[in-house]
Amino acid sequence: MDLERGEEDSESESLGEVLRDRFRISTISIAEAEAKRNGMEISEPIVACISDLAFKYAEQLAKDLELFAQHASRKSVNMEDVILSAHRNEHLATSLRSFCNDLKAKEPQSERKRKKTPRKENKATTSVVHIPDN
Questions:
Q1: pTM summary value
Q2: What is the pLDDT of residues 100-125, one digit of tens each?
Q3: In 3-state terms, the chain is what percent helix, strand and coil (to 5)?
Q4: CA 121, 124, 129 angle in degrees (round to 5)?
Q5: Is the dihedral of CA 78, 79, 82, 86 positive or negative?
């Protein structure tokens, strides 16, 4: 039993390392491309620092999003959690809200999830009988 748990932990750690390495490679590539596009040179220690900071930020963001979803008694993160995570950066929050509204506008009406009304309201509306005036 402990051997299996150890193997799972080892697999999880190696998967985490692969994801971290891929993330860092991507951020390095982006930083170098932006430097080139702007006619600048960027040193390797600076690129490595940017990569590490971006990864640490992404880790913290993921933890925050998970906590926001848990606080709302949900098992998955939704767009409102992402927008809430940007509350300290008004420009980013505004951009995320705009993006969210654009996505909602593009979504066909039939595919949108309908909010369930509480059962008490359902019972109240079904038990009311309307008698028209003659």
A1: 0.64
A2: 999 889 887 765 565 565 555 554 44
A3: 75, 0, 25
A4: 140
A5: negative
